[in-house]
Amino acid sequence: MTGASTTASTSLESQQTTSDVALRPTNVRFGVLGLLCGLSMITYIDRVCFASAASGITRDFGLSGQEQLKWAYTAFAIAYGLFELPAGWLGDRLGPRSTLLRIVIWWSLFTAATGLVGLKFGSLTLGGLTTLIVIRFLFGAGEAGAYPNITRAIHNWFPMKNWETAQGYIWMSGRIAGGVTPLVWAILVSGTTFSTPLLNWRGAFLFFCGLGLVWCVVFAWWFRDQPANHPAVNAAERELIGSTWTPHSHSNIPVKAMLKNRSLWALCLMYSLINYGWFFNVSYFPSYLKDRFQLSEGDLLGAVYAGAPLWVGAIGCISGGIIIGFIAERIGDRRRARQIVGCTAMLVCALSWWSVYQAKSIHQFCISISLAALCVDLTLGAAWATCQDLGRQHAAVTGALMNTVGTVGSSLAAWLTGEIVQRYVKQAAASGTEALTAAEKYTASMAGYQAVFFTYASVYVIAALCWCFINASKPLEPEQAAPQVGGH
Questions:
Q1: What are phi and psi of 27, to 5 degrees?
Q2: CB-based contact 39:177 (threshold 8 Å)
Q3: Is the pTM of this model over 0.90?
């Protein structure tokens, strides 16, 4: 009897353990987040590396300064804006898996093409500055779909309470990758006091193309559009996530609802304003830092500082969701907590850019500009989670609209920054009878950048006001009823 009792007891304990395991949610969603964070990293590496390559491109193309690359920067920003909505619509309709695979392959190929422009084969030259501008436009068209479809995937794979945090990890990953890119570039291309260059700037673009293609292979093998289709997800995790998305069921963009939603337009305007000031970090900043403080090509401190706004901003990406959660617990309103963080961060950001305007040393300058980036990134998770709140089943399209309007700010910054600097140089040249010396050109261009920094400080005050009008309590359209999975 004792043996039989022991056997029965062991069997019962085994069944209980199996039951406990079955009731415990699997963690496949965290693997999904890891893949999406990896994509965010590649996205930023591929866009920031162009700014790091600016001095080499300027030299090989025979340009007088990086301000002549303003249309290359602007072409990327314009394309990024134009193709946001089509890519978001495609993700809502077909799912993020097939959409992301298409666009990552596309932009990876044009990353490689960037490194080939101007290459000489005997008497044949593969284009020049105009060709480079076209390729950067096509590259931007591909990257446009990244974050709307990442948002679609997060909406499918995470419960609402985790949206800000998941978005925070996504943006943190991108910022970290963008922040270390100048350092990686120094090691790979420029060389340091401890190492010689491994690649030229053209080879680096081919290398970064390869990273994107490898990611596509892993993503195609492992990712599924929704938890119900992934063989490793159990019923408990599906119930925890509670995703209601099904492919092909939301093909129509709710245009009227979008046009009538004042909160959505306040959100879009705010995003455009923060992009206007932030775009400097991934465009003119590395070369500006080197020119203003007379840094050598392989200066490691300069490489670290050049990425500082991004890797410091990464702290804001993840801490923003934590701060919002802390405030929400105390006031009982998560959406109100987003407004509080948004308004406060934007005002501190404006003060930080005013400090940049006044900075005298490289340390004060980089601390101030990094604090400004930190404040911007504190609000990113809140902004994209608000898109999910407003859009729900149209989360990718809503995020795409915000990012589209946001790129208006990026495009304006890309063009206007170069234009203002060039005008200051031209005015200085027109005031004398002789050509400008190198020192006079330097003084004029620095004065132009100072004027630009004042505009950055101004727009963040307006961005703070925008947060006062953002209320995501009502979605564009009612959420559809969740489909029954494994019914009785």
A1: -120, 35
A2: no
A3: no
